[in-house]
Structure formats: structure tokens, C-alpha cells
Design brief:
By secondary structure, this protein is an alpha/beta fold. It contains 14 helices and 13 strands. Strand 3, helix 8 and strand 4 (164-167) form a beta-alpha-beta unit.
Length: 371
């Protein structure tokens, strides 16, 4: 008989001391973003079967089998889930790289803490304005953008005692704010155009409210608007150009920007010498419409975007344009700050609000107006 036989369970001593793999490690091994890994592992979201299989294979290889149960027990029976509510319908949300990159930041921090993400259907998708927020299993909620339909949803969360973090929203009672310098950044872009010599400036805006109309926006509708980011960015431009016209797009997409540009540069219109688009996707569409109308960018019209995303060069056709002039925002860092604030509240600590700055990056789409 071997007197040195290992007692039951002792053979696992060294293995138990190894750090438990995290969702971030799984994402790195699978070659995908943390948000994609979270969606693939949870079985929710627009993830292809090939990507899901790749993530699950990486999880199996690393021995990752889900959020750490010890993390859940520390929260005394909580679900171990952070809910994420986006301003767009889920069918549209993942078409915008800004949403994806913000979600990456949330997923990275949540994954390191052993927490999972749950994408909750937007209030825009539910007639009651609250939907699954009434009973979805989650410990905290991050709101990405806000509009009037979110108000009843926030009331539901408050009644449930669920901590709320709001990214780029008007002040919400009890919610931790994560803000971006939308107004000041837009003012800097407008001042840049003014210094180039422009005076006829039009703003192509994101939706001003849940109606998502398309076309010129009256001052009365702007005053009654509920979309925080849209209004702040417009106010920034009008701080430099008080009479700047505003044209509302139905969403943040190249197609919406192209439709707005077609209206601005079409026959009978008063063509601006510069356009400030409230997203890079809208800006790409505006540039495309200008080129299709026979205009040169920036010789005939300058275009400024907002976000700093990677743009597909093919969208500019055969023009020499390669880079937008745009305001670059730190989307991943915003998501990280939101997740940290949510986790702090779950652990009974004081959450830290955060405010971020966008930087003007010059590209090929701006220049002095023609004499």
C-alpha cells in the first residue's frame, strides 16, 4: 500500500490555485470583441453560428463555464447580470459601430468582474415603454442614450430598486451620469468651420425624439425634443452659427445621411457651404450625396462628422477622399466607466460619475468655401 497516496480532492490543489478564466480571456482567444463573446456565450444577440461555435470552443479550451459563482454569492443571491438598454431598436442598434464599441467597454469590465450582460429590448420596441424591464433578471442597468419612452422604464427600475447608469442622457433622478462633451465638441467643430470662412452651415441631426421624422426641424420641435445627444450637439453648432438650419435624419446610417444630402443638394434647395453631421455614418452619406450631385468635397461643400469610427473608403466612390474631418469620441472608455459605476453600486461603494472629451480630427472633407 502506498502511504503517500493523495487524499481525495488534494490532486486538484494546484489547479484550484490557477486564476479562473474570464470572459475577456475567452474573447481574446476566440479573436472577437468582449461584447461579441458575451452575446455568443449567453445565446442572445445577432451573432453568427460560426462565431458562436468559435467562442464556445475557446471557452471550453480555457475551462470557462460562465460567470464565477463566487462572484454571485458575494452579491447574496443576485443574478450576476448587468442589463443594457439601447436607445435604438435592437434590430438597428448593431448596425452602428458606436453602439458596438460602447458595449465592448461595458463587456470588458463586466467580464473581468465575473458578470454577464443581458441586452434588454429597447422601450422603442414595446408599446408600454417598459417591456421586459419589469421582470428581467438583472442586478443593474446601463442605459445607452435616452428618449421620452425611457421615462416609464426608469420608473420601473426605480421601483425594483435596481441601480441605473445613464450614458449621454438628461439628468435622471438616482442614475449615475456618464457624459460626453456633445455641446462643447460641436461648438469647436463649428468654430473651425467659421475660421475657414464658412457662414452657410446646415446640421444633419440624429432623431430629435422617438417619432424619428425626416426633414427640416422647426425651432418649436427642437424645443420639445427629447433626445439629449441630438439637442446638445445642435446647441453647440448654434452657439457659433445661431441661424444654422437643422435637417433631421431618421437614424444614424449612411442611407439616412445620403437621403438628407440628396434633399440639401437637390434642385431648388439652398445649398450650404458646410454640413455638420451628428454621426460619421450620416457624414459619409452626406459626402456620397454631394458627390452624386456633381459637387466636390471639400471645394464645393465641407462635411464634418462625429464619432471617429473606421469608415469604408469604397463609400466615397472614386474620389480622393480617405478620411472624414470628425470629432473622435472615446466610446470604449464610456462603456468601461458605466460598468465600473454599476459594479460599485452593486458592491455598496460610491459610484463615480464620468465625463469625457471628444477631439477634432482633421481629414479630407473640410476646406475654405469657394469665393
Amino acid at each position: 500500500m502506498d502511504d503517500t497516496a493523495t487524499p481525495p480532492g488534494a490532486s486538484d490543489t494546484h489547479a484550484s490555485r490557477r486564476p479562473r478564466p474570464t470572459l475577456v480571456a475567452v474573447a481574446r482567444a476566440a479573436g472577437v470583441a468582449p461584447s461579441t463573446a458575451s452575446l455568443a456565450f449567453s445565446g442572445t444577440g445577432p451573432v453568427s453560428e460560426d462565431t458562436r461555435a468559435k467562442v464556445l470552443a475557446a471557452a471550453a479550451a480555457l475551462g470557462y463555464d460562465g460567470p464565477d459563482p463566487r462572484a454571485r454569492s458575494l452579491r447574496r443571491g443576485r443574478s450576476g447580470v448587468i442589463g443594457v438598454v439601447m436607445d435604438d431598436r435592437l434590430s438597428d442598434a448593431f448596425r452602428d459601430p458606436v453602439n458596438v464599441l460602447t458595449l465592448d467597454g461595458i463587456a470588458e469590465v463586466a467580464g473581468e468582474a465575473g458578470l454577464s450582460l443581458l441586452l434588454v429590448r429597447s422601450p422603442l420596441d414595446d408599446e408600454r415603454g417598459a417591456g421586459p424591464l419589469v421582470d428581467a433578471p438583472m442586478d443593474a442597468v446601463v442605459l445607452v442614450g435616452c428618449n421620452v419612452r425611457v421615462d416609464p422604464a426608469v420608473a420601473v427600475l426605480r421601483r425594483r430598486g435596481i441601480p441605473v447608469v445613464a450614458i449621454e442622457a438628461d439628468d435622471i433622478e438616482g442614475a449615475v451620469p456618464i457624459q460626453l462633451d456633445n455641446r462643447e465638441a460641436s461648438r469647436r467643430a463649428a468654430a473651425f468651420l467659421r475660421d475657414l470662412g464658412h457662414s452657410a452651415v446646415t446640421v444633419v441631426t440624429l432623431p430629435i425624439d422617438a417619432a424619428r421624422q425626416r426633414g427640416p426641424i422647426t425651432d418649436a420641435r427642437i424645443d420639445a425634443g427629447t433626445a439629449h445627444t441630438t439637442r446638445e450637439r445642435l446647441r453647440g453648432v448654434r452657439g457659433v452659427f445661431p441661424d444654422a438650419a437643422a435637417f433631421e435624419a431618421g437614424g444614424s446610417s449612411v442611407e439616412e445621411g445620403r437621403a438628407a444630402g440628396a434633399a440639401l443638394f437637390g434642385p431648388g434647395g439652398t445649398r450650404p457651404t458646410a454640413v455638420v453631421a451628428q454621426s460619421d455614418l450620416l457624414a459619409v452619406g452626406v459626402v456620397s450625396a454631394a458627390l452624386e450631385a456633381g459637387l466636390r468635397v471639400p471645394e464645393d461643400v465641407s462635411v464634418v462628422g462625429f464619432d471617429g469610427i473606421t469608415v469604408d473608403d469604397s463609400l466615397f466612390h472614386s474620389s480622393p477622399i480617405r478620411h472624414l474631418t470628425t470629432l473622435v469620441q472615446p466610446f470604449v472608455q464610456k462603456g468601461q466607466a458605466a460598468a465600473r459605476a454599476a459594479i460599485a453600486m452593486l458592491e455598496g461603494a460610491e459610484p463615480s460619475p464620468a465625463s469625457f472629451r471628444s477631439e477634432l480630427r482633421l481629414g479630407d472633407t473640410t476646406g475654405p468655401p469657394r469665393a
